[in-house]
Design goal:
α6 packs parallel to α16 and α10 runs antiparallel to α11. This protein has a two-stranded antiparallel ribbon with strand order 1-2. The radius of gyration is 24 Å and the shape is globular. It is an all-alpha fold and 495 residues long. It has three domains: 44 residues; 395 residues, no CATH class; 46 residues, no CATH class. It has 20 helices and four strands.
C-alpha cells in the first residue's frame, strides 16, 4: 500500500505545481491547492474526504454558470463547491479502488439494479431528446450527471463503512451540519423573509430547506425514540427543538403537509403507538392555538389570496396562484406526455414542472416513471428489512426515523422536485448508504435462526459469523480487507 500512496502523492504534488504555475489569480491557486490536497488526503483515508463532503452539502456556495435553452425554460444551471469536492473525492475513491483491487468498485446491494434502471432511463430519454432537438446538450448532460452524483455518494458510503463507530460519526456530522444551518436559518427570521438554506444564490429556496429539515428532524426523532442512552436522547431532543423555528419560518406548505404523514408514520412504528398517535392527532388539532401567526397566515393564504389571474376556482374555494400553477402543470403533463409516452421528452426537455412525479413522467416517460417508482419501492423495502433486522436500539431508531422522513419526502414531492434537489438528495443518499450496510457494522443476536439464515450464503463475512454463531462465540463484523471483500455480498444476501 505504501508504494501506491507514494506514487499518487507524487502525482498530486506534480499536478499542484503545474496548477500553481498556470494559475492566474491567488484564489485559483488556493482552490487548486485545496482540491489537490483533498485528493491526496482522500486517497490515503477516504473517511476524511467523506467528512468534508458532509459539511459541504449545506454549507458550500452556489454559482450560476448558465441558463438553459430549448424546451427547458425556467431552469438554471448552477455549480456548487461540493460538486468539485465530490468529483475530487470520487476520483480518489476510483483511484484507491483501482490500486487496492480487493476493495471492489460498486459493491452489490439490493439497490444496484433499481439505480441502474433509473439512470438508464434518464440517459436514454435524454439521448433521444438530444437527437430530436428537445434537449440542449449542456443542460441535459449536467442534470443527468447530477443524478449520477447522488448514487456515487451512496456507493462511496457502502464501500467505505466498516464499523459502528464510523457510522455513528457520520450520523453525528450530518446532524451537526443540520444544526449549523438551522442556527443560520434562525438568524434569518428577524429579517421577515422566508427562511432558506444558506448559500443558495440570490433568492434561496424555502421549500428545499423545509424538506431537508423535515427529513433530518424525523431521522433524529427516530433515534431519540429508540435509544436507551438518556444523554443521547436529551441531546437529540434539543437538536430537534433547534430545527423547529427555521422549519416553521420556511413557510413551506409542502413541508407542513409532509410533516403530518411523516409524524404519524413515526408514531405508528413506536412501541406505544396508539398513545403517541393520539397525542400527534391532538397536537395537530390544537396547532392553531400555538403556531406562529405567520405560519397560520401562510396556510390560509392558500385559500384567501386576493383575486388574481391564473387562480383555480373549485366551487366556492379559490386556490392561490402558486398552488394553481402546480395543479395546472399536472394537467399539462398528462396532456403532453402522450406525445412521447415511452421515453418522454428527455431530462430538461420539457417545460419546468415544480412537482416530482409529473416531472419524471414528462421527462422520462412511462419507462422512467416505472424505474423511478421501482427505485423508491426498493429503498423502502430495504429500510423496512433493516428495521426488522436491527438489534441495537440506536440503529433501529435510525432506520425508523429514516423511514418516517422518507414518507415525508414522498408527500413533499407532490409540490416540489424533492428527489432531484441537491440539498436534500445528497444527505438522503448518504443515509441510504448507511442503512444498506447496517448488517456489516452492528452485531447480530446469536440466535439459532440467525445462524440458519447466515450459513451457506457464501459471503466471507457471513461464513465467519456462521462459524462463530455455531460455536457460541460473540459475533462482530469483520475488519480490514476481509470486510472489504465481503461487504458487497453481505449487503446483497441479507435482503
Amino acid at each position: 500500500m505504501r508504494q501506491p500512496v507514494f506514487v499518487i502523492g507524487a502525482a498530486a504534488i506534480a499536478l499542484l505545481s503545474g496548477a500553481l504555475a498556470a494559475s492566474s489569480t491567488p484564489a485559483h491557486m488556493l482552490l487548486a491547492a485545496g482540491l489537490l490536497l483533498l485528493f491526496t488526503a482522500s486517497f490515503i483515508n477516504t473517511e476524511w474526504g467523506l467528512y468534508i463532503l458532509i459539511f459541504s452539502m449545506l454549507l458550500s456556495p452556489e454559482i450560476t454558470v448558465g441558463g438553459t435553452a430549448g424546451s427547458s425554460l425556467g431552469r438554471g444551471v448552477s455549480l456548487r463547491l461540493e460538486d468539485l469536492i465530490l468529483v475530487v473525492i470520487g476520483l480518489s475513491w476510483f483511484a484507491r479502488n483501482a490500486v487496492v483491487k480487493e476493495l471492489g468498485l460498486f459493491l452489490k446491494t439490493p439497490l444496484n439494479l433499481p439505480i441502474f434502471l433509473y439512470m438508464l432511463s434518464c440517459v436514454l430519454s435524454t439521448g433521444f431528446g438530444l437527437m430530436a432537438g428537445r434537449v440542449e446538450f449542456k443542460t441535459g448532460a449536467l442534470y443527468v450527471l447530477k443524478y449520477f452524483e447522488y448514487f456515487v455518494i451512496f456507493f462511496m458510503m457502502v464501500n467505505h463503512a466498516r464499523s459502528s463507530g464510523q457510522v455513528k460519526r457520520f450520523v453525528f456530522c450530518l446532524f451537526l451540519t443540520a444544526f449549523i444551518v438551522a442556527v443560520i436559518g434562525m438568524l434569518q427570521i428577524p429579517g421577515g423573509e422566508r427562511v432558506s438554506a444558506p448559500f443558495e444564490g440570490g433568492g434561496g429556496e424555502p421549500n428545499t430547506f423545509g424538506g431537508y429539515l423535515l427529513f433530518i428532524g424525523m431521522t433524529a426523532a427516530g433515534i431519540a425514540v429508540k435509544t436507551r442512552d438518556i444523554r443521547t436522547r436529551h441531546l437529540l431532543l434539543l437538536f430537534i427543538l433547534c430545527l423547529v423555528p427555521p422549519f416553521f419560518f420556511t413557510q413551506s406548505r409542502s413541508s407542513y403537509l409532509a410533516f403530518i404523514p411523516a409524524g404519524l408514520f413515526l408514531a405508528l412504528m413506536a412501541e406505544r403507538r396508539f398513545v403517541i398517535v393520539g397525542m400527534v392527532c391532538i397536537g395537530l388539532m390544537a396547532s392553531p392555538l400555538f403556531l406562529p401567526d405567520i405560519v397560520k397566515q401562510r396556510i390560509r393564504y392558500t385559500f384567501n389570496q386576493p383575486e388574481e389571474p391564473g387562480q383555480i376556482i373549485i366551487g366556492d374555494v379559490r386556490l392561490d396562484t402558486s398552488t394553481s400553477a402546480r395543479l395546472q402543470s399536472w394537467k399539462e403533463v398528462m396532456r403532453d406526455f402522450t406525445r412521447h409516452p415511452i421515453f418522454g421528452h428527455g431530462v430538461t426537455g420539457y417545460a419546468f414542472v415544480d412537482a416530482q412525479f409529473p416531472r419524471v413522467l414528462a421527462e422520462t416517460g412511462l419507462l422512467g416513471m416505472a424505474a423511478f417508482l421501482y427505485l423508491l419501492a426498493a429503498i423502502f423495502k430495504l429500510a423496512w428489512r433493516r428495521f426488522k433486522e436491527a438489534q441495537e436500539p440506536y440503529y433501529r431508531g435510525l432506520v425508523m426515523g429514516f423511514l418516517a422522513g422518507f414518507v415525508g419526502l414522498i408527500v413533499h414531492s407532490i409540490g416540489v422536485n424533492t428527489f432531484v434537489i441537491v440539498r436534500i438528495m445528497e444527505p438522503f443518499w448518504f443515509f441510504v448508504g448507511i442503512i444498506a450496510v447496517l448488517p456489516m457494522v452492528q452485531p447480530e443476536a446469536p440466535a439459532a435462526e440467525s445462524a440458519a439464515a447466515l450459513c451457506g450464503r457464501s459471503p466471507l463475512w457471513a461464513e465467519e459469523r456462521c462459524r462463530l454463531l455455531k460455536s457460541g462465540s460473540k459475533t462482530r463484523p469483520l475488519s480490514g480487507s476481509a470486510a472489504a471483500r465481503g461487504n458487497g455480498d453481505a449487503v446483497d444476501h441479507t435482503v
